[in-house]
Design goal:
This protein is an alpha+beta fold and 599 residues long. Helices cover 53% and strands 9% of the residues. The chain has 19 helices and 8 strands. Strands 1, 2, 3, 4, 5, 6, 7 and 8 form an 8-stranded mixed beta sheet that branches. The longest helix has 36 residues, at 267-302.
Length: 599
């Protein structure tokens, strides 16, 4: 059924239609081809003799060293160019396609993916958003040349070791800045060719307290010197050991005025804008890492057996598979929205980043019960992925600091959303949920902050209305319609509660009861993504076109939310289990694309 387009959505849709079909159509095909080539280059992850396989990666992790051979392979394959927009000589077109290309790396090792690739994009993002043409060209040349870029974040209110401490940049008498301060934990600090630093330029608190500086790490800036820059020792971490965490200390380092990215005081707004992309990508790639653990659990219960899987393992296996599809739905919708609705994605990105790592943590606990003692075989290519991801996932999600940052985005908007958006806003364009629909390129300069409404809530309301007549049909589609209506009712109840919040909700972050409202909202948003993706199916994938996976995914989300859910129809779990086993035997990923994996 046709979705109603808002005025903003119609403008974006018109912009998409104006793009030549050959350009956007080729992006999808080219990205798939590059991802397949990278997957093939990395080889069979379970082959103990493969220098890029899981055994080699686990061994490097145990030694707290990067997997140098695999890093060289990634550099030679041109992975750095994937982080550079097309207009500056790179291959970055769309956020969702970038996640697809990065997944072969993250499916094997989160530390490798963060240490070699994605952290450099996080660092480059402010430059793509607000840098001068010369800054963009310089950074593009470094990344396409295989170099890394480090990012030194400012210190938020809820900080952990990775975010604690910050730098200050005072105005220098002759122009430019004098950079001081110390951060003990910066990914790739010791081997980055450039550093993007969020430095405090105003001692007063507020949204204009920080600025962004682009530093040439090799030259340390004109007039500098080794006595003004100190690379701090490596930091031992429990997770992502191959990412090389170390620190930086500046003591009166002269920084030229042209190192400023954007305007003075624009650091926090730039961080809020660009974090949307970071959050969406993290959700997309960590889901790929969990995919590997699910395959190892299936391997554990099928190897050496010819009969059906024991019933006690069916529930966790099909439940985790459904959750991974839900996580991929949310990540994919956010990543596609960054291309299609860049001014309206901040809320959805924060919700995804809040809920996806938490779901995956629960999934790992469930899979641990399936793997049993095999899960302790940390050096086994067949079963060691669980141990590693349990250690890596908290760092990827930034733990409590990452969750608090997402709540800081969501909570202040809840009252406004309840009063102006929920059950009033028009639905997003249908292209958002159609996997093969043509989309505009990701443009960091268009990313907005807050005030963009809530397209996921609008989509949920529309999905529930369209599915309502199917409730009388019973079976899987009837259960799906009942679940959709239940989530719409939960959004309606949440609206009434959020209308009573203070006009500005930042102070409410200290109230656990308000944070619970944020938790409920994020799960509702996840349900909306699942329904939108299911409705967007065109029948190309018969399994995804059937409601079984969506019914299971929504039932599990509803259980976490504490709402009444209908009984799962007969045959639903069996259908999902059959698909999981089929994908495992065929070497296909447990994502929405059923991505072909190396044998």
């Amino acid at each position: 059924m046709t979705r109603e387009l808002t005025t903003a959505a119609m403008t974006t849709a018109a912009r998409t239609a104006a793009r030549p079909a050959a350009a956007t159509g080729s992006w999808e095909a080219d990205a798939r081809a590059r991802a397949a080539r990278l997957e093939a280059s990395l080889g069979d992850p379970y082959d103990a003799a493969n220098p890029h396989g899981l055994r080699a990666l686990f061994d490097a992790d145990a030694r707290h060293t990067p997997p140098h051979a695999t890093e060289r392979l990634l550099a030679d394959s041109g992975l750095g160019a994937e982080l550079v927009p097309l207009e500056y000589g790179g291959k970055l077109t769309r956020a969702d396609l970038l996640a697809r290309i990065l997944r072969p790396v993250f499916r094997r090792d989160l530390g490798l993916g963060f240490g070699f690739g994605i952290t450099s994009l996080f660092a480059a993002a402010p430059v793509w958003a607000a840098g001068t043409p010369e800054q963009r060209r310089r950074l593009a040349a470094l990344l396409t040349g295989g170099h890394r870029v480090a990012i030194a974040h400012h210190e938020p209110a809820h900080a952990n070791a990775l975010l604690r401490n910050e730098f200050t940049a005072a105005a220098a008498p002759g122009g430019g800045y004098l950079l001081d301060g110390r951060k003990d934990v910066v990914i790739n600090a010791e081997r980055a060719a450039a550093q993007v630093v969020f430095a405090r330029t105003d001692p007063a608190p507020g949204p204009r307290s920080h600025s962004v500086l682009l530093l040439d790490a090799a030259a340390d800036a004109p007039g500098g010197g080794t006595d003004r820059v100190r690379k701090l020792p490596r930091v031992t971490t429990t997770g992502m050991r191959g990412a090389l965490f170390s620190g930086l200390e500046f003591t009166g380092l002269p920084v030229p005025a042209d190192a400023l990215v954007g305007r003075t005081g624009e650091g926090v707004p730039l961080a809020l804008r660009t974090l949307q992309v970071d959050r969406g990508l993290i959700c997309g790639v960590v889901t790929a890492a969990a995919d590997t653990v699910l395959h190892s659990a299936v391997r554990a219960v099928t190897t050496g057996r010819t009969g059906p899987i024991a019933r006690r393992w069916t529930r966790p296996l099909v439940g985790v598979f459904a959750d991974l599809l839900a996580c991929d739905s949310m990540a994919t919708v956010v990543l596609r929205a960054l291309n299609l609705l860049p001014e309206r994605t901040q809320l959805a990105a924060a919700a995804a980043k809040y809920v996806v790592p938490d779901l995956l943590r629960e999934n790992l606990e469930e899979l641990a019960t399936v793997l049993g003692s095999r899960g302790f075989q940390w050096d086994s290519p067949d079963y060691g992925a669980l141990d590693k991801l349990v250690r890596d996932l908290p760092l990827a999600g930034l733990g409590h600091a990452g969750a608090a940052a997402c709540q800081a985005v969501i909570v202040p908007q809840l009252r406004t959303l309840a009063e102006r958006s929920w059950f009033a806003e028009g639905e997003p364009p249908p292209e958002l949920f159609r996997r093969d629909a043509e989309l505009p390129a990701l443009d960091y300069r268009l990313l907005g902050i807050a005030g963009g409404g809530d397209f996921l809530a609008a989509s949920l309301v529309g999905s529930a209305a369209r599915l309502a007549p199917a409730r009388r049909l019973g079976g899987q589609v009837g259960a799906l319609a009942e679940l959709a209506e239940g989530f719409a009712d939960e959004l309606r109840a949440l609206r009434e509660l959020c209308r009573t919040l203070p006009a500005y909700g930042a102070t409410a972050l200290a109230d656990p009861a308000v944070c619970v409202l944020s938790d409920r909202y994020c799960l509702i948003a996840a349900a909306a993504a699942v329904l939108g993706v299911w409705e967007g199916q065109d029948g190309t994938d018969p399994f995804l076109a059937e409601p079984a996976w969506a019914v299971l995914a929504l039932s599990r989300i509803g259980g976490r939310l504490g709402v009444a859910v209908p009984d799962v129809p007969d045959g639903c779990a069996e259908q999902v289990l059959d698909e999981l086993l089929r994908r495992h035997r065929a070497g296909l990923g447990c994502d929405l694309d059923a991505t072909p994996l190396s044998p």
